[in-house]
């Protein structure tokens, strides 16, 4: 425990950040399951409705997050995160009482807006509280929280829906945010290096540009963001269709939670492994690209299965989902490490928000494109196409990376 992945938890500030994230992530995954089950099963709506939810979730990350990120770097991060969590509780109440899709979309948008402020503040707080040599473990723990809640959240959400009704997960989500607030009150004051500079009229635009300029000047960071942005676009082509994939494979509404949990379980195992063996930090782009090649193959196999060419027991489809989760960690953990290690502390909020904006922009049109494609070529066709695209993305990235490395070696020689 004292030497591996859990090393950063000795740090009181990081311990508070991590504890709050665990309960915040749990709330988010209860939300994810509840909204999809309400839309697809309770209201009986189709692919377009699910796609609209995902698009509305993404818009604040593209527009509001980057514009507000300058203030994330300037404002006290502890109080900002606590305020964001209070607002999330308010908007979850709106989701609970939403009578139709349009009201639900309004509160999904408001909740995503607050999340687009909370996450850069959390990223910045991590950068200010964790020593550079512990960043791989800290980033892995953060990813571990997200992935563990992918197991607990959907499974718990399915159970809560079965016991207490379709909207009951929102109550548990609000409770999770309340616990996160209580934990954040124990967070020590974070010393930042960013001055307020509120009197300089040009400082806002200059500060905003600084984060974007840094992304394009840092070669490894730029490569990681481009690779993950394209990967996100491909993933979100079929992500909104995943509930319909589950239906086609014979999974019920409650069993859909188990399928998503299988992805989460694979992600947890992957994150634990990467946290224990951190040699990958010297070749993060290579690991991301290799994972892309393998996950593309897996998505292609699932797509062929949905087409009905062959049938497998549910346990084997869950094993495939587990493998996808494992590979997702091999892409997500290195990306998180590159983002933290290649960014100065004083612009962490701006850079993480700009990176999230670029990624979200790349995947914002994907759900609508996926829904349209599903109507013309079917859900299986979308999966097969996405699998082939993911495979070639990884292959091209590996080839490009190898050529770059050979060029560097020849210059050194």
What does this structure look like?
The protein is mainly α and 413 residues long. The protein has a single domain, classed as Growth Hormone, Chain: A, CATH 1.20.1250.20. Helix content is 82%, strand content 0%. The chain has 15 helices and no strands. The protein has helices at residues 12-42, 47-62, 64-74, 77-97, 101-129, 135-164, 169-184, 203-217, 219-239, 242-248, 253-276, 284-307, 314-341, 348-364, 366-412. The protein is globular, with a radius of gyration of 21 Å. It starts with 11 loop residues before the first helix and ends with a helix. It is found in: Cell membrane. The chain crosses the membrane at residues 21-43, 49-73, 85-110, 170-188, 223-244, 256-275, 287-310, 316-339, 351-373, 379-400. It comes from Mesobacillus jeotgali.
Give a summary of the structure in a few sentences.
The chain is mostly helical and 413 residues long. Helices cover 82% and strands 0% of the residues.
